[in-house]
Design a protein that fits this description.
Layout: H1 9-19, H2 23-35, H3 44-55, H4 65-72, H5 99-115, H6 129-139, H7 157-177, H8 179-198, H9 204-227, H10 231-247, H11 251-267, H12 271-284, H13 291-308, H14 311-325, H15 342-355, H16 359-368, H17 378-394, H18 398-411, H19 418-431, H20 438-447, H21 451-454
Helix pairs in contact: 2-4, 5-8, 5-10, 6-10, 6-12, 7-8, 7-9, 8-9, 9-10, 9-11, 10-11, 11-12, 11-13, 12-13, 13-14, 13-15, 15-16, 15-17, 16-17, 17-18, 17-19, 18-20
């Protein structure tokens, strides 16, 4: 026993009792684990005696630890068979140089997120990553090899479809309730189920499809983290999603990742970097992108330029977006860009004209896309309704602006979204000059009953 790790046999016994497993049931699970390694275990009678000795602390199960870990699907330290591992440092924001390094980095990031290693949830973005990551992707050679498998199990297309369906479920939750609703559950799913699949063997076709789907899941983790206000963490997820898309040889998805990074950079006030990220998406998908995708990338460029006050540049980008969008053929679009329709394009116009202080135009475009999502994109409806409220206020119509803001508050009752709170905070600041107006005073009294508005104080 002197050469064994700290041993807590009561945890081993407690886990079996918690599951209401007999020793026979545990032996069956251990035999399955051993069979995967083409190993044969002793007789049931011998193993029953051994289990009793392990659980009573009379012996340490040295050569059986791997099978107990697999049987219970729990780490050794949680079963009392090993020392608690030291807390792992959060992985850096650097762009991984190889597929194997990428796999290690993204799985480490999922684990670090769940434990908030190094204060990851409150970390700040790295300015350099907005320059280095797109450059690394742009100059990378095609045909990145898949990581070396570390497990004898084999992944099939059915596994990939299972992951895709699960990610789609979380996409729906995100759109309807905000990133703060299911974010942790998504990370737990990626860390438990998906990380195991990434270690397994796969054909070239299945492997690329799996990494593309996991890249989408990681991109969603980035969006949900961004929407929750975890900006340094979100940036790390964006970088890892970009590298996973490279491994998948999926340039369309990689372009969408860069576009999403541009969106976050604009939100954080890094407008030059945001415009360049959108341009990198356009450049890197010239031979691969669909009109819908390219139009969306130009819209992201326009958003950044509008915040910079570059009216000419913004107008040119919006003109490009409109011209290209007219050539769209939804049948050739990947599923992840299907949300970008005429209503979404109008919403982008509304944002841009609001930021350029062209309130009349902003109002027109915001009104065009209201109610165009059939309740599927509650957060997007909230955003565009707040753009309408801002624009009406910019036109000197506080009563109508407050009416629109109340509609947004009603839409957002179930949202857990730091970005939604930010939209309301901006509106609240713009409303200050009208605080003595009766309609504004009435609005403020009603708004105080809404959770999102309370978070702006």
């Amino acid at each position: 026993m002197s050469n064994t790790p700290t041993y807590r046999p009561e945890l081993l016994r407690a886990e079996r009792e918690r599951r209401e497993w007999s020793k026979t049931r545990l032996i069956y699970a251990m035999r399955q684990a051993a069979a995967e390694e083409h190993r044969t275990l002793p007789s049931d009678a011998t193993l029953k005696r051994s289990i009793a000795r392990w659980e009573n602390g009379h012996a340490y199960p040295t050569e059986y630890v791997p099978y107990l870990v697999k049987a219970y699907d729990m780490p050794a330290h949680a079963l009392g068979l090993a020392d608690e591992p030291p807390e792992q440092a959060a992985p850096s924001v650097d762009y991984p140089t190889s597929s194997d390094e990428s796999l290690q980095a993204v799985t480490a990031l999922w684990r670090a997120d769940l434990t908030d290693a190094d204060g990851l949830l409150t970390s700040s973005p790295d300015l350099g990553a907005w320059h280095s990551a797109p450059l690394a992707w742009l100059v990378a050679a095609d045909g990145t090899p898949l990581p070396k498998p570390r497990d004898r199990a084999e992944v099939g297309m059915a596994d990939v479809e299972t992951v895709r369906a699960t990610v789609d479920m979380f996409v729906d939750l995100d759109n309807r309730f905000g990133g703060g609703h299911g974010r942790r559950a998504l990370i737990q799913y990626l860390d438990s189920d998906v990380s195991t699949l990434l270690q397994a063997r796969a054909t070239e076709q299945v492997g690329r499809a799996l990494f593309s789907t996991v890249a989408e899941g990681t991109l969603l983790a980035a969006w949900m983290s961004y929407d929750s206000g975890h900006h340094g963490l979100a940036q790390r997820y964006f970088v890892q999603a970009l590298r996973l898309a490279q491994t998948a040889d999926d340039r369309r998805l990689a372009g969408s990742v860069l576009s999403a990074m541009s969106h976050q950079a604009t939100y954080l006030g890094r407008y030059v970097e945001a415009a360049n990220l959108a341009r990198a998406a356009i450049l890197g998908t010239q031979r691969h992108g669909t009109p819908t995708m390219t139009a969306q990338f130009h819209a992201m460029e326009a958003r950044a330029l509008a915040r910079l006050g570059d009216e000419a540049g913004c107008s040119a980008a919006l003109a490009q977006a409109t011209s290209i969008f007219e050539r769209q053929n939804p049948g050739e679009d990947p599923e992840f860009i299907s949300y970008f329709d005429e209503a979404e394009l109008s919403a982008e116009f509304g944002h841009c004209f609001r930021d350029l202080k062209q309130s009349g135009q902003a109002t027109t475009y915001a009104e065009q896309c209201l109610g165009g999502t059939d309740g599927k994109y509650v957060r997007s409806d909230f955003f565009v309704t707040m753009v309408l409220a801002d624009s009406l206020l910019g036109r000197g119509e506080p009563e109508q602006a407050c009416r629109a803001a109340l509609q947004a508050l009603d839409l957002g009752r179930q949202l857990k979204s730091a970005r939604s709170v930010a939209y309301l905070s901006e509106f609240r600041t713009r409303l200050n000059p009208y605080a003595d107006t009766p309609s504004v005073a009435e609005f403020l009294a009603q708004a105080r009953t809404h959770r999102l508005w309370q978070m702006t104080t």
